[in-house]
Amino acid sequence: MARRSRFHGPCWNEEPSRSLTAFPFVLSLSKDAPQWGLCLLGAARRGAAHLGLTRLLRVIASSAKGAVLAWEGSAQWYSLAMKLLLKWLLSAAALLAVAYLYSGVVVTSFTGALIAAAVLGALNIVVRPILVLLTLPVTVVTLGLFLFIINALMFWAAAGLVSGLNVNGFAAALIGSLIYSVLQLAIDFVLEQLLFKK
């Protein structure tokens, strides 16, 4: 038997949707209209509370989804920042390796290698694409060999801008840039295939 509410009469404490659905039929059979009015008011209040709870749950779910997306975005930015930092450190180590392998390139300290790696990276990002575009006909005629000259120019320019990196002439810059390019390929391979492989 259904549990009755605090009101006297045939008003059951049912779910809001059931109470509101059954109300018109029962009202036609009831002789106590004021009590059914109170029952309808109680059912409406319960229905409003139910809708408010549903809306609250939707807001909570939406907030949780937004927090998850924000966390994923932060994780991606953190991974990218760590990758750039690690590549910068390895590039500085590559410059030290170039100086160790070839006497035409001199690196005074690890701090100088860090600065030189940052300057060389900036030159390769900003200046090198412009030179490649301007010298595209020469690059095509030489079957891409002129790109080694451009790399040597970037290496030589970095040595001229940073006191911690010294190069003994353009030929030394060419040889040093070749060794540095090979080491950079190895660094990129390690970062992409081993450390940050998804």
Tell me what the structure shows.
The chain is mainly α and 198 residues long. The protein has a domain at 77-195. Helices cover 79% and strands 3% of the residues. The chain contains six helices and two strands. The protein has helices spanning 16-29, 33-101, 110-134, 136-141, 146-161, 170-195, and strands spanning 105-107, 165-167. Strands 1-2 form a two-stranded antiparallel sheet. α5 packs across α6. It is elongated and about 75 Å long.
Please render the helix and strand layout as text.
Layout: H1 16-29, H2 33-101, E1 105-107, H3 110-134, H4 136-141, H5 146-161, E2 165-167, H6 170-195
Antiparallel strand pairs: 1-2
The average pLDDT score comes to 76
Report the principal-axis shape: elongated
What percentage of amino acids are in beta strands? under 5%
Q: Helical proportion?
A: over 70%
Structural Rg: 37 Å
Total DSSP E strands: 2
Instruction: Report the end-to-end length measured between terminal Cα atoms.
Output: 60 Å
Instruction: Spell the H/E element sequence.
Output: HHEHHHEH
- Strand arrangement, major sheet: 1-2
Q: In this structure, how is the largest beta sheet organized?
A: 2 strands, antiparallel
- The total count of helices amounts to 6
Report the uncertain regions. 1-33
The helix-and-strand class reads mainly alpha
Question: What are its keywords?
Answer:
198 residues; mainly alpha; two-stranded antiparallel sheet; 6 helices; elongated; disordered N terminus
State the gist of this model.
The protein is mainly α and 198 residues long.
